[in-house]
Amino acid sequence: MPSKLSSFAILCLALLGAAPAAQAERLKELASIAGVRENQLSGYGIVVGLDGTGDQTSQTPFTVQSIQAMLQQKGINLPPGTQLQLKNVAAVMVTTSLPAFAQPGQTIDITVSSIGNAKSLRGGTLLMTPLHGADGQVYAMAQGNVLVGGVGAQVAGAQVQVNHLSVGKISAGATVERAVASTLGADNQIRLELKQTDFSTAARVVEAINDQFGAGVATALDGRVVRVRTPSSSDQRVAFIGQLENIDVSRGKDAARVVMNARTGSVVMNQAVMLDDCAISHGNLTVTVGSDTNVSQPAPGSLGATAVTQTPSVEVKKDPGRVLMLKGGASLADVVKAMNAIGTTPQDLLAILQALKSAGALRAELEII
């Protein structure tokens, strides 16, 4: 039975062929403003109040050390040699992202993840945990009841688990304690950073901004960064950036790219990919990409001239002799379709794509995932 390795590729190519010309996109979809970003925070904490599903302290000594240190801070000194059996406690890592321009007093959501061997964090309470940034400073304090979106049950000796029980979330579980200094609008300018480096898109962004706000407002520094002059006052700058983000820009055409999943055989192309003349032999497969010469003679007595055209063709052979010939566009899509029609495997397609790229016959970037 023929494999289905190219069904996804055929669908993508059909959609690409039927799609209209690329429409303009808002600038906020194409670029971000330098300095306007989230900052990752993390901290080590303790979850208490579990129903016997906490860490096995014999295998996680750091949980016991954490409890002992916490009790000492509370003024409780344990007798020497005390062996704690903590079934309702779990050591966790708390992670979150600090939004741009977040101010002290605001709350953010956090994720709580077990780092020991706790079976479940369901029903637990996170004790006050400082969240640090990359610079080691405390930017938020976290605490609250952990919400785990899963269920664990044991029926007639069989254990059933839905979702992941060792990770939970706390909505508004952290309070911002320190704001990140912002340099937005320093020297009355901002820098737009395109999400993908493309010189044609950068040039179009500059043209669109200058058409909207006047010549000289925007200047391209390279294929990724555009410098924009802004008003000096903060309220005018905010209004200016709001208008700037909603400018429509026609993005430059991306470079041809072919992405293949080596495990499933899925092939995705962002546009029609053409091939140069080539011939590949792989195992019992032979792939030939070339062109046929067509000669058109004018009618007797007419003033027309003889026309010679080249029609691209793709030929795929698989022993014992089954041949499929395709004409009218020597593209990678034709090769994929032809190979699929004779039942090739994802490994065969992967090897042929790599050979096409190595030989310089594939006019696209090849990415294997």
Question: TL;DR of this structure?
Answer:
This protein is of the alpha+beta class. The protein has 7 helices and 21 strands.
Give the uncertain stretches in residue-range form.
1-21, 320-329
Q: What is the number of helices? A: 7
Shape: flat
How are the strands of the largest sheet arranged? Answer: 3-4-5-10-7-6
Biggest beta sheet attributes: 6 strands, antiparallel, barrel
Helical/strand content category: alpha+beta
Q: Topology as H/E string?
A: HEHEEHEEEEEEEEHEEHEEEEEEEHHE
Q: Compute the gyration radius: what is it?
A: 31 Å
Mean pLDDT: 80
Q: What share of residues are in beta strands?
A: 35-45%
**Distance from first to last alpha carbon:** 26 Å
Number of strands: 21
The amount of helix comes to: 10-25%
Describe this structure in words.
The strands form six sheets. A six-stranded antiparallel barrel has the order 3-4-5-10-7-6. It has a four-stranded antiparallel beta sheet with strand order 2-11-13-12. It has 369 residues and is an alpha+beta fold. Helix 1 (7-18) runs antiparallel to helix 6 (332-341). It has helices at 7-18, 27-30, 61-73, 199-213, 234-245, 332-341, 346-358, and strands at residues 25-26, 31-33, 39-48, 90-98, 107-114, 125-132, 138-145, 151-155, 158-162, 167-176, 189-194, 218-220, 225-229, 248-249, 257-260, 267-269, 278-282, 285-296, 307-318, 322-327, 365-368. The two termini are 26 Å apart. It is built from seven helices and 21 strands. It is 21% helix and 35% strand. Residues 1-24 form the signal peptide. Keywords: Bacterial flagellum, Cell projection, Cilium, Flagellum, Signal.
